[in-house]
Amino acid sequence: MLNLKSPAFLRIHMIKQLRQVLYISFSAFFADLGYQAALSLFSIYLVYLLKAPVYLYGIAEALNYGLGSLFGYFGGRLSDHFGAKKVSIFGNALIPLMSLYVFTNKPLFVILFFSWGWWMRNLRTPARRALLSQVTSTEERQEAYGILHALDIAGATIAVGYITLSLFLKLDLKLVMLTTVAYLATSTLLLAFVKASEKPRPKHTKMGTKEKALFSGIIISTSLFGFSYFSFGYPILTVTQRFNAPYLGTLTYVVFLLVSSLSGYVFGRVKYKEALLLAMGYAVASFGSLGFQLSTSLPLYFASSALMGVSVGMVETFEPSLMSKIYLREGEGMGILSAFRSFGLFTGNLVMGFLYSFHLAYWYAFLVSLVAFLVMLASSQKS
Q: What are the alphabetically sorted keywords of the record (predicted)?
């Protein structure tokens, strides 16, 4: 039974290399402070302002995540060969390409600028996760990933906040997006300060029967979660179109990010069965999707966004923490995790783009994330 009053439930470890963890986590903060502004504006700019069809947005997001899965996988592999720090810095330095799409009104070029920046973000992410593993012990990682997610999403929340205000005040989006380059440069500089000792990489990853079952469960579930966890551009677009107010669409995203950041911080300190809590994260996502399907008012949309925030806070804390403990080649393990998630997102965004016009998109997301919960629940029982 889960005893919330137990000291073991919310035990806080003293992280030995806390400064290195904070360098990496604040790098994530400044990265999201920059590129999340571009991300939150993408669907509004492409569909609402440039009048491109929704299915084109779906194709664009599928392209981002489809090829992004390859960039994520090779980013992990490259970090094992050239070092997680070098690959993190390289990928992070090229993310500002995302900010340039507001300087064109051609949908094709909008997609290309956004995609290249996003792919560089995917290249960096598994390397940055591996870098965090290198500066922490096994016991410290759940808390460290919780800190990373909390600061990561805190930066995203501020980014979407200033984009929301910019849309409300009808500011020049080109000037606003230029500021994101400075935030991303700061993010890259912080990664350069990290001092991590490269650990010898084992040639083989030996896993026992329980570890193999857990590994398979995580990979299958994260793919299914990707199938169901659509780009948040869809809820932004849903609210924008329903109320004819772009700033309300991005405000919905702010709610999601605030709750997600807090959830990452809290769940990073929860000392309970990680695999079971990960399964519960997928379950919460299914109800968040159901909420978007059934919502008829702005408060209900906000509540659905909050549920999705709780879900992502749990998943982004427990997935990498579990993977780092069962897969010995850290970079490759994080690359596999990113690749399978992105593959799921590739398929999910294509399906969501097609079903959106038929008002079935969120029903689909609800059902698939429910299956992810059942698969991970079964795996958690075996482990």
A: Membrane, Transmembrane, Transmembrane helix
**Gap between the Cα atoms of 274 and 143, Å rounded:** 12
Question: Going by C-beta distance under 8 Å and a sequence separation of 6 or more, which residues neighbour residue 208?
Answer: none
Separation between Cα atoms, residue 63 and residue 210, nearest integer Å: 35
pLDDT of residue 117: 96
Residue 171 · residue 297 · CB < 8 Å: no
Quote the tokens at residue 22: 């904070």
- The whole-angstrom separation of Cα 187 and Cα 25 is 9
The mean pLDDT values, 10 residues at a time, for the chain of 383 residues are 45 74 95 92 90 87 81 87 93 96 95 95 91 87 84 88 90 93 96 80 60 75 65 83 88 89 81 83 91 92 94 84 73 75 75 85 90 85 67
DSSP assignment string, 294-329: H--SHHHHHHHHHHHHHHHHHHHHHHHHHHHHH-SS
- Alpha carbon 170 to its chain centroid, in Å, reads 28
Nearest to 283, CA basis, from 190, 189, 377:
377
- d(CA 76, CA 255) in angstroms, rounded, equals 31
**For position 8, what pLDDT does the model report?**
43
**Alpha carbon 256 to chain centroid distance?**
12
Q: Which fold has domain 18-193+208-382?
A: Growth Hormone; Chain: A; (1.20.1250)
- Provide φ and ψ at 250, rounded to 5°: -75, -30
CA distances from 211 to 279, 322, 382 (A): 16, 10, 9
Task: Parse the chain into domains and list their residue ranges.
Answer: 18-193+208-382
pLDDT at 7: 44
CB 364 within 8 A of CB 290: no
pLDDT of amino acid 1: 44
246-267 and 233-243 helices, crossing angle to 10°: 140
